[in-house]
């Protein structure tokens, strides 16, 4: 089987971006590392694709959308909006799911490196070293639905902090005081939790650490975390799921315990995906302006591909509430 750049990187113990620098004879690479990579390339008889090299500089009119989790329906929404705007501008979108695995992140980037003109990296990317190398190499990259404060990289996202604040504020206005939070260990989740904390504080309440659960990113994982809240003697009267998947997990946990929604428990999610309309009761959620987000990220990336000389940008759009049947005043009154 013909060796790939990924095979060379793995054998040399370096990233694919470092191998690419050696192939293209650019970047600051130590002589020792450069010689090691060249030796491995010779041993494995590796040759860069002639077709890929020929395409370099001409453009492929193709953009890669890298997502962390194909099971979350929000990414289907992202793809729909991004693809629509991309087609209007003459670009094709290819999508790859990393399953939150840094090795898969590197593999996908490596396989697509010479086949696409740029990358949209959505929501979560664990291999920060690779992301840094891409930006330092001048590869067009725009982060979507998340930011990296430590990197000078373009990003387009909804305001997670404001969304978390507004969801919690709404529950407080309904009369809920004990509000649970089911989150995840991601930057966007942390921002939404920060908004949750601030909304409580602004109303004179202190966030209770025992009411904040951070755990699995699946419906079952969220159900487990929400179950821990609902099994408390002083259980919350409302739960804010950091995304719709988490909120659906909370609904599942409530249903298995015979807790009626919204009479005995209000639940609100985040993302306003198709899940909201098919749940019973229909799920209230924080709605992101997905069409405008998709338009902005495509337009920004294409300007980078075209060599536009402009400062790096962090674009944040404002979310809104989509109120449905899963939230009510404590005791069930609307």
UniProtKB/TrEMBL annotation:
Domain HTH lacI-type positions: 3-57
InterPro entries in UniProt: HTH_LacI, LacI/GalR-like_sensor, Lambda_DNA-bd_dom_sf, Peripla_BP_I
UniProt entry keywords in alphabetical sequence: DNA-binding, Transcription, Transcription regulation
Recorded superkingdom: Bacteria
MF term (GO), any: transcription cis-regulatory region binding
UniProt-recorded name of the protein: Substrate-binding domain-containing protein
């Amino acid at each position: 089987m013909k060796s790939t750049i990924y095979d060379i990187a793995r054998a040399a113990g370096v990233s694919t971006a470092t191998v690419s620098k050696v192939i293209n004879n650019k970047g600051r690479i130590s002589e020792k590392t450069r010689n090691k990579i060249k030796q491995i390339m010779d041993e494995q008889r590796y040759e860069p694709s002639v077709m890929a090299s020929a395409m370099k500089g001409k453009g492929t009119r193709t953009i890669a959308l890298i997502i962390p989790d194909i099971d979350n329906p929000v990414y289907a929404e992202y793809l729909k909006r991004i693809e629509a705007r991309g087609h209007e501008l003459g670009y094709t979108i290819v999508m790859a799911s990393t399953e939150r695995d840094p090795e898969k992140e590197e593999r996908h980037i490596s396989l697509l490196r010479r086949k696409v003109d740029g990358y949209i990296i959505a929501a979560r990317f664990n291999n920060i070293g690779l992301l840094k190398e891409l930006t330092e190499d001048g590869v067009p990259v725009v982060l979507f639905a998340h930011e990296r404060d430590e990197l000078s990289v373009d990003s387009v996202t909804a305001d997670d902090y404001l969304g978390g604040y507004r969801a919690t504020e709404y529950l407080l206005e309904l009369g809920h005081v004990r509000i649970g939070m089911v989150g995840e260990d991601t930057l966007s989740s942390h921002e939404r939790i920060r908004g949750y904390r601030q909304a409580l504080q602004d109303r004179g309440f202190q966030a209770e650490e025992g009411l904040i659960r951070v755990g699995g990113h699946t419906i079952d994982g969220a159900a487990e975390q929400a179950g821990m809240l609902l099994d408390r003697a002083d259980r919350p009267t409302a739960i804010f799921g950091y995304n719709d998947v988490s909120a659906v997990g909370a609904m599942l946990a409530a249903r298995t315990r015979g807790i009626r929604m919204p009479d005995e428990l209000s639940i609100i999610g985040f993302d306003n995906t198709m899940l909201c309309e098919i749940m019973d009761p229909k799920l209230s959620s924080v709605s992101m302006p997905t069409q405008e987000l998709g338009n902005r990220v495509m337009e920004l990336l294409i300007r980078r591909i075209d060599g536009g000389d402009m400062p790096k940008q962090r674009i944040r759009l404002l979310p809104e509430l989509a109120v449905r049947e899963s939230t009510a005043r404590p005791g069930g009154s609307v």
